[in-house]
Amino acid sequence: MSTFGMDKVYVPEGWRSTSGGGGRGKNEPGVAAALKRLRKEVGDCDRCRLSESRNRLVFGDGNPEAGIVLIGEGPGANEDRTGKPFVGRAGKLLDKILASIDLNRSKVYITNVVKCRPPRNRTPRRDEVTSCLWILEEQVRIMRPGIIIALGASAARTITGMDKGIGMLRSGLHRFMGYPVMATYHPAALLRTNALKRPVWEDMKKLREMLKEKDLPRREGNG
Questions:
Q1: What is the pTM of this model?
Q2: Is the pLDDT of residue 135 over 90?
C-alpha cells in the first residue's frame, strides 16, 4: 500500500449553456486563452457573501490542456493568502498522492467549487455554491476534461448532484456536464485519519488505469 511518501499522515450572471463531449473546433480559442478571458470576466467577484471576507479569489492553477481536472470544496487560509489552490498541508499531501501515479501539477488542473475561502474553512452554503457554480461550469466547458476527480464529500455532492457520503460516492463513476467523474477523499481527511490512506491508494490505482485507457494526460495533438 502506498503511503504517498509520508510515514504518518494527521472539494447567474455570466452563465452559458454547456454540454459535454465532442472535440474542440479548429476556430475555437485556445484553452489557456479562453480561461484567461473567463478569469477577466469573473473579475473581483462579489456575487455572494464570501467576497466580504476573502483576501484573494482562487480561480485555479495547473495545466488546463491536460484533460485531468481535480476539484475541491473551497480555498483555505494558505490559498486565500496566495491565490493558488491546494498550497497548504493538504496541498503538499495532494502532491504526494499525485506523484504516486506519476502525476504532478504540470499534468493536471486544480480548482474548487467555490473560489473564495469560507470563513473558518466552513462548508460552503448552498447559496454560495449556487452563486459560484457558473464559473466551474465554464472552466469545465472550456477544458473538456477526459476525467474529473472530486476531492471530498462536499465537492463530490455538488458535482454529482447526489446527497450521499463520500464512501458511497467513491463506489462508482459519475457524470458532470457529460464528463466522467470519480470521487475520493479530500487530502485534508487523510491528515486527520491515517486509515484513509488505503482507500485513497485504491482510488489512485483505479485512476491510473483510467488514465491509461483514455491516454491522459493529453499531449499536443491527442486532445
A1: 0.88
A2: yes
